[in-house]
Design goal:
By secondary structure, this protein is α/β, with parallel strands linked by helices. The protein folds into 2 domains: 11-344, Glycoside hydrolase, family 3, N-terminal domain (TIM Barrel), CATH 3.20.20; 369-544, Rossmann fold. It has 19 helices and 18 strands. It has helices spanning 10-16, 29-37, 53-71, 100-106, 109-125, 156-172, 203-208, 212-219, 246-256, 271-274, 279-289, 300-315, 321-344, 355-368, 409-415, 431-440, 460-470, 505-515, 539-542, and strands spanning 18-20, 42-45, 76-79, 81-83, 86-87, 130-131, 176-182, 197-198, 224-227, 230-231, 262-264, 294-296, 370-374, 386-392, 420-426, 446-451, 476-481, 496-499. Strands 11-9-7-6-3-2-1-12 form an 8-stranded parallel beta sheet. Strands 13-18-17-16-14-15 form a 6-stranded mixed beta sheet, sandwiched between helices. Helix 4 (100-106) crosses helix 14 (355-368). It is globular, with a radius of gyration of 24 Å.
Length: 546
Amino acid sequence: MKWTAADLTLEQKVGQMFICGFNALTPNEHAKILVEQYQVGGICYFRRNVETLPQLAELSEALQRMAEETHRIPLLISIDQEGGMVARIDHDGISRIPGNMALGAAGSVEDCYEVARIGARELRSLGVNMNFAPCLDVNNNPRNPVIGVRSFGEDPEAVAALGAASIRGYQEEGVSATAKHFPGHGDTSVDSHLGRASVPHDRERLNRVELYPFIEAIKHGVDAIMTAHVSFPAIEPSDLPATLSRAVLTGLLREELGFEGLIVTDCLEMHAISKEYGIPEGAIRAIQAGADCVLVSHTLSEQTAAITAVIEAVRSGRIPMAQIDAAVGRILALKARNAKLAAELPVQPVARVSEETKQLLFDIAGRGVTLVKDEDRLPLQAEQPVAVIWPELLKATQVDEAWSKSYTLGNALRSRGVQADDVRVGTNMTDEEIEQALQAVKGYTQIVVATYTSESRLPEGQKKLVERLSELEGITLIVVATRNPYDLCDLPSVPTYLCTYENTPYYMQAAADVLLGKLKPGGRLPVGISETYPLGWSYNQNVAKR
């Protein structure tokens, strides 16, 4: 069926422009109000919506059935399944696809394409037809608290090439890709969940770095682009965030760059918008600026207030009806195309990950794990016990979530027949907890510390613990950075340093094989850590061959 904006009432048109979330495993009253009463065009899933894969598939089917019975227009069902450390689904039967920086370290366009195809097939089997990925931010700020390993790296050309391959993989398999966060969130030091960031560079620099991956994504036909709640004075001198700037969304993205797909806002409940403008006003301004879809992820009262405010803004003439019609036309066209593609592509329910896929993902992990330095500590002595200090996330943040299952580097070593004893600590250790960890590793001659940094710099407790361990005599000390490669900036004197970019099972297994000398790590740094360890550095390539 072909849907047109002319067939819809004003209320239905505005509803189509909203993508909203709710907190339930089944269509609760919140979901029913969104779909049946406000006739929203899309739903966004979070981890709160996932218990099992069959449950999630049933939820998607029930929501689509509700939309069909209400207004006969299917929903965009979206999710942030970036891979690596940002994955709403990590349950049995789903492939734990790698994140961007791990893929950036491997540097393979083909790997990115295949990973996206795997992810898309699984998402579509669960009823998800839009992924808020890939991140095309160029992470050239080591202290970026919100992008980090979500980026392919700091080289704009590499980010563009790997991102284009991911987009192709997702969209060939029937899932709309969403390039984010336009015009670029990589060179910021503020988390836009918590406040407003600014990128002060001139247009020449923005064209060459921040904008370049998005320009290439547009050339490759990306379905959607998500906005950043970040200010770009060179484009918008009034200091408005990009999400609310007509100069950015219409002048730059639509007119100058020629983007014809959907412009989707990042969530308006993030403080950079909600605290400064309020969500209803933010929704009006985002649409005035040129956004097609407004994302309000959590709160029903804010969602309904924003939809109502936009309807009133159209009635009052503040938002032209022609702009609403153009946006809805783009939304309906994408839905029609996705529906046609979905009918042509086979859907296989996700029951288990094939052995072929598991092997591919393990091989990709080996190509990405990066040995940065080694002062003759490798390989470990497999016949000797190893203490593995493993930091665990005890408190979720806006950029970090606890996984549904725990798999440690110790688990990976034990699966290789090594006596590896986990010493579990929090990511933010107190002095008392540091002393407890030091007591726990007494008597071990081989100690591996897995560091974990989800924000801008290594937590002080982890830093202190590694420094104290470095003072011990007669031990082999190895640090494995299981997320942020920049941890070495805070630990310059560690003798051996390995980067995995994520603490997911395939990367822990690859790291275990590197530690035991069974695997030669193939990765190169996708970001520069220092003058000593620049972009593209690998101990194997730069030192071991000398």
